[in-house]
Amino acid sequence: MFCVSREANTNQKIYIDLSVDGKWLVSGGTDGKVQVWNVEQQTYPTVHMQMGLHKDCVNGVSLHPYRPILATASGQHHAQDPLHHTRHAKVYENALGMWWLGQQQEDNDIITAIIKAATHT
User: Fold this and answer.
1) CB burial readout 97-121, b (16+ within 10 A) else e
2) Confidence check: pLDDT of 111 > 60
3) Using alpha carbons only, what angle is made at residue 13 by residues 9 and 82, rounded to the nearest 5 degrees?
4) How far is Cα 63 from Cα 24, in angstroms, rounded to an integer?
5) Using one digit for the tens of pLDDT, what is the confidence trace for 10-56?
6) Which of 5-14, 20-29, 101-110 has the lowest mean pLDDT?
7) Measuring CA to CA, how many Å separate 38 from each of 23, 74, 85, 117?
8) Separation between Cα atoms, residue 51 and residue 110, nearest integer Å
9) In terms of CB atoms within 10 Å, which of 44, 58, 77, 99 comes out highest?
10) DSSP string spanning 76-94?
11) Interatomic CA distance for residues 84 and 81, integer angstroms
């Protein structure tokens, strides 16, 4: 057994998912990033990949069982301190995302363009 850490300074649930082959563990964090650990390693797992996919808490992650697709959900409740509230609010995000994690191909279709724009590639 092991314990891995992530950025999570909230009292809401932040979900995890494990790939069907048992190799990859994924979870979101309050920093908007999704972290991936290789839990098949013989040593203590370290972060294999970290992806900044959202501007707010990534509270839901789900790996497709047989395609290289990751689904994410973002957003959280932001309580404001009534004594220190200003008109300048932080940018909040409540979104669902579908991310292609496979090989990029040079296709001239709109889906590929959206994926490349979302992943900044």
Assistant:
1) bebbbeeeeeeeeeeeeebeeeeee
2) no
3) 50
4) 10
5) 667 778 899 888 888 899 888 888 988 888 877 777 777 888 888 88
6) 101-110
7) 6, 23, 42, 27
8) 22
9) 58
10) ------TTS--S-PPP---
11) 5
d(CA 39, CA 113): 32
Buried b (16+ CB within 10 A) or exposed e, 24-56: bbbbbbbbbbbbbbebeeeeebeeeeebebbeb
Q: Which of 65, 50, 67, 52 is nearest to 97 (CA)?
A: 52
Scan for tokens 């048992």, then name that residue.
Answer: 22
pLDDT of residue 17: 92
Which two tokens mark 51? 């992806």
